[in-house]
Amino acid sequence: MSPVIEVRNLRKTYGAGDTAVHALRGLDLTVEKGEYIAIMGASGSGKSTLLNILGCLDIPTSGTYLLDGIDTSDFDEEQLSLLRNRKIGFVFQSFNLVPRTTALANVELPLVYAGVRRAQRRERALAALDLVGLKDRTHHRPNELSGGQQQRVAIARALVTSPAIVLADEPTGNLDTDSSREVLAILDRLHASGRTVVLITHEDEVAAHAMRTVRVVDGRVAGVLV
Ligand SMILES: Nc1ncnc2c1ncn2[C@@H]1O[C@H](COP(=O)(O)OP(=O)(O)OP(=O)(O)O)[C@@H](O)[C@H]1O
Ligand SMILES: [Mg+2]
């Protein structure tokens, strides 16, 4: 088995001097291809900091991160964003959709960045929206959709590029029980179809969907529960 995520001695410090915050303090983590893992831990323990680095949205202060075997240590912002576009689908707690445009246009966006032609973009975005059960909402704008539907659009956007890894930071944190269940069912299906899924959650019932739970305590991985 080849790890899709390999993190060694990862450190992230925000700020400097007296006000420096050591969010990650030498964290190690390996995730195999096709795994589904849940990350849990107290508020402020460094979970989002870790996920943002795994998603190439931020860079560590030190340590190494191998993504699908590629060492990202010396990558600049442009290289990181290219890699992100090719390998990562990111789902945020607050959906982060572009407000004044349709579900379809939101889902097409990563394909625009990837330089995919218009006709193919449309076809793939429609297929992704179909996959999350939103075929009949393609021309709705985010404010015309429920929270659960918005999160499903965000998931469609995350998977439209066929990323190796789907990262989700408390994807059900802003959703009611029914919408949470739908979102978790979609993540289950993604995992079943061979995707690697890494999700942050505060809820045991959500973590139960994963194959294993990684606990982050004070910027390090504490214990691994199977
Ligand atoms: N951009 C930033 N600038 C300064 N400090 C930050 C920044 N982002 C996070 N921190 C600090 O780093 C620490 C870890 O934050 P992080 O967001 O990773 O925690 P978390 O485990 O995701 O918490 P939560 O469960 O509340 O989302 C916290 O002390 C936080 O205040
Ligand atoms: Mg967080």
TrEMBL record:
Q: State one Pfam family annotation.
A: ABC_tran
Which Gene Ontology molecular function entries are recorded, alphabetically?
ATP binding
Query: Which CDD domains does this entry report, sorted A to Z?
Result: ABC_MJ0796_LolCDE_FtsE
- Residues covered by the ABC transporter domain: 5-226
InterPro entries xrefs: AAA+_ATPase, ABC_transporter-like_ATP-bd, ABC_transporter-like_CS, ABC_transpr_LolD-like, MacB-like_ATP-bd, P-loop_NTPase
Q: What is this protein called?
A: Macrolide ABC transporter ATP-binding protein
Task: Give the keywords, sorted.
Answer: ATP-binding, Nucleotide-binding, Transport
**Upper lineage ranks?**
Bacteria, Bacillati, Actinomycetota, Actinomycetes, Pseudonocardiales
